[in-house]
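User: I've been trying to design a sequence by hand for this structure and keep getting stuck. Would you show me what you'd pick, starting by listing the structure so we're on the same page?

Assistant: Good idea, let's start from the same input. This is the structure you sent:
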């Protein structure tokens, strides 16, 4: 069932235990104002709070802001805000995460939820030149689900269900196996829901980026976000507006991507269509860090959240793949550290043809793959023609270049997470490939990196 666009601020309330202990309760804006006043007072929190009338917290905010002017960004950084976004496209959800990777939050998962046919957003919302392909893609998605569910039943060893797994869990693992392979046919105009927790400053920056995007859905969502943010931090949103310099920079990037789209070899039209997901890893080690020090950095590393030494923390890593599907990008993009680079330029199309076991008729999947290539090509051609909103013609199987620049400890964490229990089979392959590059440079760390086998959870 289609979900109306809705952005809802959810306030936090004090716990009974905190209330019983007499701990203060402040609005997000008063919290930020108190923090601002705190930095100019040696008297401590109690003195500041003693001057606040609990029945009129807004007056306290105005008094502090009149007394202290620290500038918009530092104040807004201290005002936490949670919002839930219902009924946005999967593409916009990906784009939002790319703009605010340090936000906390969640999104409806295509790995665990069957997406319904009536959740598609039309060209009137997205600004794409047309959306006629989307219903066809959803039909293929449903057929592909049945196809992979049949394979899971016929070849239980492929699903790798552990002995003794309860019956209900067996059904869930089989269903997830099918979701993981069928989701490549989902159009990015299918709706999803997401929630985000970040500071008012983060929300203001996001709104600026969305208003400047030139994309109809993004601009509409930004306007609703701003109205909702005004309920929480009305004094801190004066910068939540269209900024000409940001709009000009985004448009320049879009023009560059459009030019590149027009000169890519047309493998999609020829029927080949799957871009190579070749991994690359560039490692920049400080001059005084030895290979022995790198190995020692794992000495107390007993889980992916465990301790790592300074040699890993000080080493820079740029890693990525020549082509990754939007389905994988939606999670790989969410790793919080460093910078990511992913031009919205469809390069190819992948749909798990390599996962079909011997003896199974692959012709239905091959036919659907050809339609996926055609749809991805239509997205690329629209972008080449100068309409960046034609990214909405792509599917979750459409492939894009992706790179992530961070430090080695964060790279190792991602590799351990994305090859561990419950990891998607493609995540595991992508990070296994990157680790092979790492091991060539630091062979003694093989076995110290807690590389998993993506076993079902």
């Amino acid at each position: 069932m289609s979900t109306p666009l809705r952005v809802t601020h959810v306030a936090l309330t004090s716990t009974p235990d905190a209330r019983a202990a007499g701990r203060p309760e402040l609005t997000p804006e008063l919290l930020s104002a108190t923090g601002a006043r705190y930095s100019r007072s040696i008297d401590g929190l109690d003195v500041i709070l003693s001057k606040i009338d609990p029945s009129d917290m807004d007056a306290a905010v105005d008094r502090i802001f009149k007394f202290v002017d620290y500038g918009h960004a530092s104040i807004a950084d201290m005002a936490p805000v949670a919002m839930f976004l219902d009924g946005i496209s999967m593409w916009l959800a990906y784009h939002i995460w790319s703009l605010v990777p340090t936000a906390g939050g969640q999104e409806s998962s295509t790995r665990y939820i069957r997406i319904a046919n009536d959740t598609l957003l039309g060209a009137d919302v997205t600004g794409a030149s047309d959306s006629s392909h989307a219903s066809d893609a959803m039909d293929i998605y449903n057929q592909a689900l049945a196809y992979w569910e049949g394979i899971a039943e016929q070849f239980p060893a492929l699903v790798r269900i552990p002995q003794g797994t309860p019956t209900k869990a067996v059904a869930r693992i089989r269903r997830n196996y099918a979701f993981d392979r069928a989701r490549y046919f989902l159009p990015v105009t299918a709706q999803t829901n997401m929630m985000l927790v970040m500071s008012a400053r983060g929300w203001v920056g996001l709104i600026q980026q969305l208003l400047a995007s030139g994309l109809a859905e993004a601009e509409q969502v930004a306007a609703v976000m701003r109205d909702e943010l005004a309920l929480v931090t009305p004094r801190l949103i004066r910068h939540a507006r269209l900024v000409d310099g940001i709009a000009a920079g985004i448009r320049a990037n879009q023009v560059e991507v459009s030019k590149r789209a027009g000169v890519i070899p047309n493998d999609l039209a020829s029927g080949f269509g799957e871009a190579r997901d070749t991994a690359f890893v560039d490692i920049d080690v400080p001059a005084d860090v030895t290979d022995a020090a790198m190995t020692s950095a794992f000495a107390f590393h007993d889980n992916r959240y465990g301790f790592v030494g300074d040699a890993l923390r000080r080493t820079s890593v740029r890693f990525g793949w020549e082509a990754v599907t939007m389905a994988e990008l939606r999670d790989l993009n969410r790793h919080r550290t460093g910078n990511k680079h992913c031009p919205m330029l469809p390069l190819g199309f992948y749909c798990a043809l390599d996962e079909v076991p011997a003896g199974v008729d692959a012709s239905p999947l091959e036919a659907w793959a050809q339609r996926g290539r055609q749809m991805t090509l239509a997205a690329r051609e629209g972008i080449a023609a100068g309409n960046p909103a034609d990214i909405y013609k792509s599917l979750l199987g459409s492939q894009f270049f992706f790179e992530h620049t961070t430090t080695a400890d964060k790279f190792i964490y991602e590799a351990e997470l994305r090859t561990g229990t419950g990891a998607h089979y493609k995540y595991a392959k992508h990070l296994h490939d990157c680790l092979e590059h790492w091991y060539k440079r630091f062979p003694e760390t093989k076995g110290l990196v807690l590389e998993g086998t993506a076993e079902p959870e």
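That's my pick for every position. To get oriented when you compare it with your attempt: The first helix runs from residue 16 to 20. Residues 208 and 241 are 6 Å apart (CA to CA).
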